[in-house]
Amino acid sequence: RRRLFRFIGFGLIAIAILLLVYGTVIDFAWQRGQSLRAENEQLAIQEQLASQMAYAEEDIKVGSYNLAIRRLDWILEHDSNYPGAESLRQVALNGDNTRPTLTPFPTATSPPVEEPRPEESEPARLFAELQQVIEDEDWKSVVTAVSAFQAQYPDFNRQQTDAMLYNAYINLGQLLLPGDQVELGLFYLAQAEKLGDLPLEVEDQRLWAELYLLGISYYGVDWSVAVYYFRDLCAAAPFYQDSCLKLQEALISFGDQFAANLDWCPAEGYYAEAVRQNNDPVTSGKLGEARRQCLEATPTPTIPITGTESISGILPTLIVDSRLASN
Backbone phi, then psi, for 153, in 5-degree steps? Predict the structure, then answer.
């Protein structure tokens, strides 16, 4: 009996050692997986930072200083010590301070500017008041005041009042595009475009707004289309309207859609892309489950047997016992 107890004791010790080793291996594998996910996420962020840095340099070259500043602010939010970002931001700030006021490029021949005559003291006085409204940078008031002035005195300093409207529309549009009134911001930019060509910087912002509206219109309706538009927007302007966060949410929801139908392999792909955007525990868990289910659902390929002759067309040979044949 003592020998039996000793044998059982050794067995329990062996089992405990095996469990310890197994647990250590599992823990190491989990830690390694977490490390790889973190590395992939960091790599994706670094790629985005590098692309935004390159875009900012191009923006400065073409005079789009405000857009460059927005890109560089986003870079510094993610990495305050990103090489060259702070110095490039200072360059953009210096350029923005020296940038002249926007003026329209008329698409049609503007009427000649009429000099005020003594009997036109009232329009001249009102025109001077418009200058004060512009200095206050209350762009809605500028649009209202200048539009009313043009309705009352359509030929008085028309080119200058058109320039006032052009600048007000652009500034108002740029103020509204990053907020909740994207459609209204686009409307104001369309009004500005009637008076002259939009600057390249403003054209870019209009494109982002249009991509955002397209993506949000399919959000929760067709995740594949939402992913398509927010993927482009996240790559071009990750700082605009939380585009990368919306991309991640759309990717997860699209993956959930596949997972609900037990279509695990496509779900794995969308979860993996979502994890590259942000490696949160919930999404990582979904990715792990989809990866496991995809592996289990994928059939193991069979290797065909070669070097054998086909038996088709070959009749079996009947072996007859000689004793039966003699009978």
Answer: -130, 75
- Determine contact, residues 130/161, Cβ cutoff 8 Å: yes
Question: Given the structure tokens 């054998």, which residue do they identify?
Answer: 308
Closest CA to 294 of 250, 255, 249, 252: 255
Sketch the domain layout of the chain as residue ranges: 2-97, 123-198, 201-298
State pTM to two decimals: 0.68
Residues 157, 131: contact at Cβ < 8 Å? no
201-298, CATH topology level:
1.25.40
Helix (H) or strand (E) holding 21: helix 2-61
Start-to-end Cα distance in the chain: 72
Cβ neighbours of residue 257 closer than 8 Å, sequence gap 6 or more: 223, 267
CB-based contact 185:177 (threshold 8 Å): yes
Q: What is the pLDDT of residues 13-62, one digit of tens each?
A: 777 777 777 666 655 554 655 565 556 666 777 887 888 888 888 888 87
Sign of CA dihedral 304, 309, 313, 315: negative
